[in-house]
Amino acid sequence: MQEITDYEKELIDFMLDNGALSIGDFTLNSGRSSPYFINTGEFDDGERIAKLGRFYAKKITDNFTPDEYDIIFGPAYKGIPLSVATAIALYDYYGINKGYAFNRKEAKGHGEATNIQKELIVGSEIKDSSRIIVVDDVVTSGSAAYTIIKLLNSTADNLKYVGLVVAVDRQEVGLDGKSAIRGIEETTKMKVCPITDISTMFNYLLDNQKITPSVKAQVDNYLTRFGNEDVKALLQNAI
Asked: Is there a catalytic annotation at residue 191?
């Protein structure tokens, strides 16, 4: 298992301290019942969303060169502030000026509503052959990524999906029973870049006595059911 970085530790502590990581019983969009929940919507003031944007900007600059992408795209709703905060951080900290955009949940019904681009997309125009990095909070089953790609493909032609950057990889399988992240990469050809993953997160929290062993056991049980082959191998080796 790869050693945890200081950068990951900082993000994990930041999420726990600000309520973006919750322990309990949660029903996910995938329909799965999870013992934890990641909600970047908890970063609801200027200081916290700015700091979160810096985490995403660092991950982008560590994995992509500026000439590889044009637009930072955030799926509604949680991806909206992520796209803005990331674009600001890229400019402020790295001198990289890129467009940002996000989608509407409902198509606009007035003004520019005759234009499908303006019906559905807010921010920088997504043109034919635009190169896009998508930012979102987590990867679970991967269904959200496919939904947003289908939406964007309806607005322009020959789009290139360069990367998907998320705070946390939940290390789960998709609806086909295979690794959600591998499925996204194989199907869309875009690189998926999580800042951290769920096994790293909960191992760190347990080692630093920020969660109880019973909480860790609940997460391990969940991953035994829904985890991908890599995380299941880690759990098996830990026995």
From this structure: no
